[in-house]
Amino acid sequence: MRGALGGTCLNVGCIPSKALLNNSHLYHEIKNEASKRGIDITGDVSPNLVNLMKAKDTAVKQLTGGIEMLFKKNGVKYYKGKGSFVDEHTVQVEPIEGGEEATITAENVIIATGSEPTPFPVGYHRWWYHWFGDGVCLV
Question: pTM value?
Answer without folding.
Answer: 0.65
